[in-house]
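Support request, please re-run this one:
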Amino acid sequence: MQKMLNVLGEPLEPCSVNPLTGYYRDGNCFSGKENDAIHAVCIYATKEFLSYSKSVGNDLSTPMPQYDFAGVKPGESWCLGGYSFVKAVKDGMAPQIFLHATHERILELIDLETLKTYAVDL
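Re-run finished. Output below.
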């Protein structure tokens, strides 16, 4: 298995186990090559961000019991897709993020200095 490193080049820390997040639903924002959406950014969800995300077609807050998904609530952490994060940055709506739990693959889409401006764990 590929080494799980965060954007700082350190071991990737878990993002959330409650709710259980990640492309692989293992609590980590690890993004392997098969994860085309690059679910690599560990965000801190707020009501404002969840409303914004829903308004642009990425509804993270509505429960979907058929997928055992309770919906993300304000105050929870979640692995967000990289393209969604970049769009939120461009729209001026990016959430705060946890760099220690954000996988290095996001650096394919956005630079570290920009990521640091949204970090809550530096």
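Residues 47-55 form the longest helix (9 residues). The two ends are 28 Å apart (CA to CA).
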